[in-house]
Amino acid sequence: MRTLLAASTLIAGLSWAAHGANLITFSQIANSNEVTATTNAGNTATTLSVVDASTSIGQLISGAPPATAFLNFNATSTDSATTVGSAVIQHYAGSFCVSTASGCGGIDILSGTFTDAAFGALAGPGLVVNVNSPPDTLALSSTLIPASELLAPSSFGLSFTNLIPNLAIVGSTIADFSATFAGDASATAEAVPEPSSFAALGFGLLGLAAVRRRRDA
Question: Does a structural domain hold residue 93?
């Protein structure tokens, strides 16, 4: 009986890894830069924005992607830009929507509010805005995707490329630039045992089998 309890405790105590399902992938249609980064008057904060950018949806978890889509994105820095080696890191809070009409109108394909980190290489042509909830905050909503598929752990990411000028810091914040964008989002974890958990479970079951063989001998 104690052996059975020990095995049950082992199984119950296994750690589980979270794997989210991809909800959407998207990118801008225009060849021109659709992202703008604008610093405030004191060069202490930066706002990143995309306004009604025509967007191509490469993948959508629920049904066929709509033929027409627009991205609106707005985020303002919440701390100073810092450097770690050659990398620039700054935190932002904001919102986004991918919808079938301009101004976040029509069908809400996917939208959300978030806090995140933006990082890139100093003097480089790229910047990544990345949200992982947890530990960041990300609240997602959609008309097309069921709410049950929008739960944490979740993530949202935007890759900014072709920065003009290249990534720099002015004052205490990321300097003005324009860029192109592509992004994706995922959510709703499916719990699966980690490899180490499978190993622990295997050892536990082998031990249980050995005990039973000794009893039967």
Answer: yes
Contact between 157 and 182 under an 8 Å Cβ cutoff? The reply is: no
- C-beta separation of 113 from 74 below 8 A: no
Please tell me whether the peptide bond between 125 and the residue prior to it is cis, using omega within 30 degrees of 0. no
Strand partners, 159: 128, 182
Q: pTM to 2 decimals?
A: 0.79
- For residue 129, the enclosing domain spans 27-179
At 144, is the secondary structure helix, strand, or coil?
coil
110, 98, 122, 172: CA torsion to nearest 10 = -90
Q: Say how many domains are in the chain.
A: 1
Question: What tens-digit pLDDT sequence spans the chain (217 residues)?
Answer: 433 333 333 333 333 334 479 999 999 999 999 999 999 999 999 999 999 999 999 999 988 899 999 999 999 999 999 999 999 999 999 999 999 999 999 999 999 999 999 999 999 999 999 999 999 999 999 999 999 999 999 999 999 999 999 999 999 999 999 999 999 999 984 444 444 433 433 433 334 344 344 445 5
